[in-house]
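Posting for a labmate who doesn't have an account.
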Amino acid sequence: MNMSTVKHLFVVVSVISLLFVYLISLVWPEASWAYIFIVPLIALGIYDVTQKHHTLLRLYPVVGHLRYVFESIRPEIQQYFVEDNLNGTPVNREFRSLIYERAKGARDTRPFGTQFDVYREGYEWVNHSIAPKKVMKEPCRITFGGKDCSQPYDSAIFNISAMSFGALSKHAIIALNRGAQIGGFSHNTGEGGLSPYHLQENGDLVWQIGTGYFSCRTSEGDFNPELFTKNACHPNVKMIEIKLSQGAKPGHGGILPAAKVTEEIAQIRNVNMGEDVVSPPAHTAFSTPIELLQFVQQLRTLSGGKPVGFKLSVGKTEEFFAICKAMVETGIKPDFITVDGGEGGTGAAPIEFTNSIGTPLREAVNIVYSALVGFGLKEEIRLIASGKAFSAFHIFRLLALGADTINSARGMMFALGCIQSRSCNTNKCPTGIATQDPSRYKALNIDIKGKRVASYQEKVVTNLREITAAVGLSSPKEIQAKDLNRRVSGTEIKTYEDIFPSLEKGCLLHEASVPESWKRVWSRAHASDW
């Protein structure tokens, strides 16, 4: 049911209700008391469809308030809805509510202390210092770009992860990019191509190139260097990211249902109308680790020297080792690597892929960081972590594992107003975010939602600076694995330094110095083949 239909239904029901009460009151005058209930509901409905702050109410007048009623009593029914992800962070309705509050600039504190069992195995925390530092006021920026990059980019520490136009509506894309422009952070385009809606707000962009090569694609679906150069040289495009795989469905490719393919999307992606848009599981521009790095070098040259990297959900460790060996052999290095956790991803996918394929983010970041250190490559390559990162504690934890910056998709969608209706793949998103139905996405107010995205990002980074200072550090760049603790049993506590031991720099360059626990993986990795 589209928005116009809902409005018409509201008008029809209102008129019928008023007429019904009027006719009944002619016979039974006492029935006129019903106006006391009906008129306020009609007035509320009129307010709902005309206000701009709540997309859900614009789409579902009157009845949409039921959701906010349930949300208002959340603390009393919290036990039925909150999940604990073994580190003390509620990840369902409680945390979504917290993101809404930060996005709206509302109070985000909680009474009555810790809300979970601190003695439960898996609980994680940081230890404060008896001599905390002053909270840094300047923004924490991280420079991307190695020796072969002539246009380095100073990135924020917390940015918008990959979500495509097509999967998201034009209003959602514009609002996200406006938030990025307001807050000075970056917006990853997702693999769906570089659309006009990514560009119109002048926010910093990371252009993602997936296996479908959208916005740089030939009619046959192969990579088009000329079209890539044209788009990559746009001043809003700050970095290029080659997508090898993603956390939601690693090794599966992507799909945009035909129901969401408009003429505009078909033109941007250079695909046919009326058909599902399928991104194949693997790239056609390269087929070996060495060829991947040659493709990185080609894109860096074609883009005029902008930072180029790749994104992957870690699968077979020896395959990533093969890429590292190829870097050492060829001397070609990406400027950054994005690691997507197997538990992450906002897109729709087969349940087997979402639940059971891909290395979880913490282990994946540790594998990639350790390999880069072991091969002597980390100093030249930035590491981005992406996967269910909502809060300053999530960011702190990933920085402790070796990440340089963090991307978030889910958190940014919540800031836009996502209520997790799980209708992303039906084109019937009730908040106008994941739909191409104009009667739905036009209800999403770009100005308000853009400011909320910026507000959410700013609050999270502010809290990160405060945690960093409380721990006794001057900058998030100083966070180390020893700063994070985990309860591994009822009576035993370990730091991340104990759980994820670091490798000696360069120890993976020669077989003789490879640690025993890594030898099997190291021996299976070959620069010329996956």
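Reply:
Got it, the structure tokens are right above this. The chain has two domains: 3-77, 141-512.
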